[in-house]
Write a structure and sequence with these properties.
The chain is mostly helical and 140 residues long. Helix content is 87%, strand content 0%.
Length: 140
Amino acid sequence: MLSSKFKFEIMMTLFDEDYIFESYVKDVERRTVDKAIKETTEVRQLQAAVRQVKASREWEVRFVIFEEMLQEQREAGKAEGRAEGKAEDILILLEGLPDKVPEDLREYLFSEKDSDVLHRYLKLAASASSVGEFAQLIRQ
């Protein structure tokens, strides 16, 4: 049979464990709420800063300039892509000719960025009977 003192110690131990667990849960809840409040405050501060920036005429002008710069970069990228495509088309035509396309000619074609020049080269490649003839025609 268990003594009353031993029963009391067991009850106190169980009570302490329940108390510790409840304290832990409450602490986790408190930290979670504190974190949510802090994050909400930070979000509100960020939203306020964004509203101020949007309201500022100076930032509006900077944003318009930035958009224009991005548009120019996009256009330059598209032009570069079209130039590379034309250079590839020229090489396809030249590779159909009996002689081999030299590496320096390949590099030259891909270094050319002027669309009109590449268009002229494309016509010359279509009418050339050899890579050597094409090379002479583009040097004229």
